[in-house]
Amino acid sequence: MSVQPIEDALARPLRSLRISVTDRCNLRCQYCMPESDYVWLPRKDILTFEEISSLVDVFTASGVNRVRLTGGEPLLRKDLPQLVHLLAEKPALSDLALTTNGFLLTDQATQLLEAGLHRLTVSLDTLQEDRFTRLTRYKGVSIVQNGLAAAKTAGFNDIKIDTVIIRGVNDDELIQLLDYARSIDVEIRFIEYMDVGGATRWSTENVFSRADMLRAITTERGPVNAINEVSSAPADRFQLQNGQTFGIISSTTEPFCRSCDRSRLTADGLWYLCLYARTGTDLRKALRGGASVEELGDLITAVWTARGDRGAELRLAAKDRQPLIPIETLQKEPHLEMHTRGG
Ligand code: SAM
């Protein structure tokens, strides 16, 4: 059941919705949540599963056919498989994925698969325990690896690893991470360090670019071939001589705004059209205020058709690039945080 998607001002379709189910996280990654204190969303504002499901129905009627559950850490949301089940029953969704840090995956993998989740992305930035602790403030390489193994055993056959590469932090680990991904038969995607809200320690010097990554991999593993494919996925894919494939998400140095069909719903129902957007549309207020399905659909159409966002491109053009949002502003407006908006 395919709905003709509405298009924005740059003719980009509304196709992919990332839903943050909680702003809470059980890790404190230095590129995302490096501060000691955070302002959390009020509990009463967090959308119920029924509210999320109702909004997804409105989105699918406007063209959305892919949903990714994220956060914060989505597996911290109580009874998450119930939401997965509600969403998996919607015929309009051809893709239902989840991004997790993997800490709670061992316990939940089977339930998530049984509830109907299609795909999993697990974040893992290093295989070195001491480095992991420096990056996240917790010990956990083997916990994440066990989570990946549990997901495989449960029967997930589309699992990816996402790895943020930061110069001077883990840029010496690309080959080990590639080898690890190959050993468990999972595709890895290397992500450039982005200057999104929350990345208060970001600097251009710390960005290990797509070109740097390809150079490092080629030096060790020989020629790398780009895979030619038409896709709205954020990663460009490559193949090594041994057949292994991997991806690179180069939002910082080679943004892909022109094909971006993604938008984001925060756990409290604010809808953002771009990871870099300063303001969002309050769908919770409309929903709880009694807006009809048609009124919500009209609101979504009006907002999306006016969309001209291309945040990553504008950031690339910015001179003297610094962290996107100062910490004082983030403390006043937590919706600007990556962990609230959903990565
Ligand atoms: N807790 C889940 C996890 O760890 O995957 C989901 C939320 S997390 C915000 C989603 C993704 O955003 C992760 O893969 C994380 O690495 C990525 N991310 C967060 N901050 C980033 C940054 N400054 N640059 C690039 N990627 C970032």
Summarize the structure.
This protein has 12 helices and 12 strands. It has 343 residues and is of the alpha/beta class. The protein is globular and about 60 Å long.
The ordered string of helix (H) and strand (E) elements is EHEHEHEHHEHEHEEEEEEHHHHH
Q: Ends: how far apart?
A: 28 Å
Give the helix level as a range of percent: 25-40%
User: Mean pLDDT across all residues, rounded?
Assistant: 96
Helix count from the secondary structure assignment: 12
Query: Any idea what the radius of gyration is?
Result: 19 Å
Task: Report on the biggest sheet.
Answer: 12 strands, mixed
Q: How many beta-strand segments?
A: 12
Keywords, separated by commas or semicolons:
33% helix, single chain, binds S-adenosylmethionine, twelve-stranded mixed beta sheet, 343 residues, alpha/beta
Describe the fold and architecture:
By secondary structure, this protein is an alpha/beta fold. It contains 12 helices and 12 strands. It has helices spanning 49-61, 80-88, 105-115, 129-136, 141-154, 174-183, 210-221, 283-288, 293-305, 311-317, 327-332, 338-341; strands spanning 16-20, 66-70, 95-100, 119-123, 159-165, 187-192, 224-226, 236-240, 245-249, 262-265, 270-272, 281-282. Strands 7-8-9-6-5-4-3-2-1-10-11-12 form a 12-stranded mixed beta sheet. A hairpin with a 4-residue loop joins β10 (262-265) and β11. The chain is globular. It binds S-adenosylmethionine. S-adenosylmethionine binds next to β3, β5 and α12.
